[in-house]
Amino acid sequence: MISVPLQFISKKKFKITLNKKDFKISLKFFICIQNYSHFSKKTRSVIIIMLLKMLPMFSLDFPKLYLILYKSLHLNILVFSFDSILDVNGAFCKITGYSKDELIGLKLSDIVSQESQEKVKILENKLFRKEKFDSSERIKFVKKDKSSLEILSYFKSFSYKEQNLGLLIGQDITYEEKYKVLFQTLKSLNQLINQTTSETELFRKACQLFLQNLNLKLVWIGIPDRKNIKPLYVYGEDNEYLSNIKISLDESLPEGRGPTAQAFISGKIIINPDSRINPQFLPWKEKALEKGYLSSCAIPLKKGDQIVAVLNLYSSEPYFFDETLEPLLEEIQNNLSFALDKIEKIRNGLLTITAISNAKNWIIITDDKGYILNINDIVCQETGYPKEKLIGKHVSFLDDPENLIKIKDKLKETILERKERYKDIFVKRTKDNQKIILKQEIIPVKLINDTVNYVVLGTNITEELKLWDKIEKLKTQDLFTGLLNLEGFSRKVEEVLKILKTEGLLILLDIWGTSYINKVYGLETGNKLIKRIASLLKGAFKNNALIGRTAGDEFGIFLYNIKGTGTSEIVNLIKNFEKPFKIDTHEINVQINLGCSLYPLDGDNFKILFEKASISLNESKNKGPGRIVFFTKELENKLNSLLKAEKLIIKALEEELFIFHYQPYFFTSDLKLAGFEALVRIKENEKIYYPGEFIDYLEDHSEILFKFEEKGLEKIIKQIEIWKKPISFNLSAQSLQNTPFIRKLIKLNEDIAKNLIIEITERNLIKILELAINNLNYLKSKNPHIKVAIDDFGTGYASFSYLKNLLVDLVKIDISFIKDITKDEKEKNLVKGIIDLCHNLGFKTIAEGVETEVQYKILKELGCDKVQGFYFSKPLPPEEISRNFEVAN
C-alpha cells in the first residue's frame, strides 16, 4: 500500500469537549497522535475511540481514508464484501492471531461470536443488496485461539471498481470492557465488605458476586487441609470436578505446582491464561477441558501476615485472565484480606475509631460528669439531632424522663458510687419526640490521669420489640377465633391469680359431637359454628372473665371475683345453648359438657386448676352430653394416679425399666406349645408394676406410647430370634395411624415376620374402623408373613360384619365368654357360634382365660384351635420360659 501525505487530509476542524473545556481539533491531529508511542495505552484508546466516533463527521471517501489508516499501529482495518474478507491490516491480524492469508476468503460473520452474528449478517445482506450503511457497533470477534475479542467498529459502505464493499475501522476495547466489569465488581465487593461481619457470609456472597458479574464457569475458595488444599465454598458448574482432583501443597509433586498451590505457597496472584497449553496446569488439564475451564486465576487471601485461603476464578474463555488485569485482581486480593482482618478485629473486640463511627449500634463517650464528648453517626441518624447539637449536652438529654426516674437510683449507685458497669433497658426520645428502646450498657473507663470517662453502648431494639410483640401475639392468640390460645389463656390466668383476692372458677367447655356436625353439615359449617360460639362466649361475660380456645372444640373460661361456686354464671352460660344456632340455612342444636375447678379450693396455679378441670371434663363426657362435673375427692385420686403413672412411665423410658412377661398358649388338640403373648410390665428395683397402674396414661399420650411400642418391638424381635417361636404383641389403635411404625413392620425379614403376631383389641379397632381396615390390609399386602389377631373379641361391637373386610389370621375370644361356659348353655352356644363364624371366614381361634380342665375340654369339643390361661401357665419372665418350655435355646 502507498501512504498519503497529510496535506491531502481534510483540514476541517470540529469542536470537542475535554474536562469541561472546548477544543477545536482536526482529523490530521488524530491521525498524528494515534501512533504516538509516548502515550499510555489507556490515553491512546481514548483518543482512538473519539476518532472513531468523529469519523462520520469528516467528508472522506475511499480510498483516501483507507490509505491514511491502513498502516495504523492501533486501528484495525478490514475490507469485506457480502461473502468474503478482501483485505486486512497488520493491526487486525495481530490482535486476532490470524495471518492475512487465513482471513482473506472467509466471511466476516465466520470470525464473529454468536451474539454478534445478527449485526454482521445485516451488513453483509446490505452489501449484497447494494445498500449503503454508515454506523458504529460493538462487535465480539473470536480469535484464532478461540478467546473472545470486543472491537468498537466503525462500518462504512463504499464502491470500488463497480463492487459494493464495506470498510471496518475498529479499536480493541476488550481490555476496557473487561476492566469496566471488573471495576464494577470491585465496587460491589466493597459494598459487600462494608455490610458483612462474618467470614462465612463474606466468602459465600463474594463467590456469588464474582460468578454472576464476571460470567464465570466456576468460583471456589480453598483452605489448607494438612498437605492439600480442600474446597470450602464452591459456586457454579462444578459437576464433581473438585471432588475428582487433588491439589497438593508439596511442591515436589506436579499437583503442588499449579495455580492454587503456588498462590498459597508464594502469596502471589497466579494466572493460568490458557488451560490448553499451560504446562503448570497439566495434572488437571483433561478434566478442566471437559468442563470448559479454559483460563483461571488463583488469588491468595491473607489474615494479618498469614495466607489463610485461596480464591479461584475459572472462565470458559482462554486469556480471560492476563497480566493487564493484575492491578484489579490485586485490589480484590487487598480488599478481601482487609475484610478478613476487619472481621477478625471485630471478633476480638479491637474496634478502631473508624469502626466506631460506622458501627450500627449506639456509641456515646462522655466525661466524668456525663457530658457528651463524642458520638457515632448512628446516634444522629436515629435521633434526628446533628452531631454538633449533641456534643456538650448531658447524656440524659436523650433520655425519656419517665423511664429515667425509674432507674435513676440504681444507675447512680452502680455508676457514680461503685464505678461498675451498668446494663438496663433505656427509653430515648428523638428530635420529633418518638420513642426509641435501647438495650444499653454504661462502662466506666479509667484514664491515665485517674479521671473517669464513660462509654455508652446501645442496641436499638425498638423494631425487635415490635416484632416480638407480633410473635407473642401469634404465640398466644388463636387466629381462627381471635380468642386466646391455650398458652395465652394460661399466661393471662396466671397473671390474674397473682393479684386475685377472691374466689375464681375455671370452666372447660366441650362441644359434644363436633365430628358428627362436620359430617352432617360439612366442615365449613362446623368451622362457622366454632367461630359463632367463640363470639357468643366473648359477649356472655363482661369484665370478670378470661376466655380462650384450649383445643379444637374446647373452650376455657376463667371467672374471677365470683361468689361461691359461680352457679349463677354457669346457669347463664348454659342458657346461651338452649336455642339452636342458625348457620347459613341450617339450625344446629348444640350440646355441651362442662368440667370445673375452683380457686383456691382445688389449686393455686393454672397448671393444677387446668389438670383438675380436664379430669372433670373427661368425667362429664363419659356420662354423656349436657353434663356438668366439678372436681371431687374421687377425681383427685384419679388425677394422682395419672400423675404417678406419668412419672413412672417417663422414668421407665429413660432407664429402660419396661420388661415383658410371656404367657404361653397351646394347640387345643394335643396341648403342644403354639406360642406366647408378650405382656408388658415395669420393673423398678424388685418391684413389678402391672399394666393396670400405667396403661391408661400410656394410651392417652400417643407420643410416649409410640416410643414405648418402638422399644417394645425391638425387645420382641430379639426374643423371637432366640426362641424361634411365635410371639404376639399388643398394638394400640394410634399406632395403626403411625406411618413410620407401620413402615418398620413392613421391613421386617421373613424369619421374624412369620413369628410376629400383632394384636389389636376390638374396642380400639372400632374407634378407627375404616382406617384400621385400610392400614392393616396394607400391612398384610406388603408383608404377608406378619399375622394379625383381634383381641378381646365380642366385647366391643354389636356387628361382626366388619370381619369380612379384614385380613385377620386369629381371633381371641374374650375371657368374659369363657368363664361361664360350664354353667350357661347359652354362653356355650355363643362361643360355638363365634368359633364356627371364624372358621367359616378362614380365621383361627384362641380362647383366653382358661382356668379349669372342664373349660378346656368344652373348648376342645367346640373345635377352638388354641387355648391360653392360668390353667396352663401364668405369664412368666423369659428366663423361666427357657427353663420350663421347649424353646430354641
TrEMBL record:
Highest taxon of the lineage: Bacteria
Domain GGDEF, chain residue ranges per copy: 502-633
Cited SUPFAM superfamilies: EAL domain-like, GAF domain-like, Nucleotide cyclase, PYP-like sensor domain (PAS domain)
Domain PAS: 85-131, 355-418
UniProt cross-references to Gene3D superfamilies, sorted A to Z: 3.30.450.40, 3.30.70.270, EAL domain, PAS domain
InterPro entries listed in its UniProt record: Cyclic-di-GMP_PDE-like, EAL_dom, EAL_sf, GAF, GAF-like_dom_sf, GGDEF_dom, Nucleotide_cyclase, PAS
UniProt GO MF annotations: cyclic-guanylate-specific phosphodiesterase activity
PROSITE patterns associated with the record: EAL, GGDEF, PAS
Annotated EAL domain residues: 642-889
PANTHER family, alphabetized: CYCLIC DI-GMP PHOSPHODIESTERASE PDEF, OXYGEN SENSOR PROTEIN DOSP
Record protein name field: EAL domain-containing protein
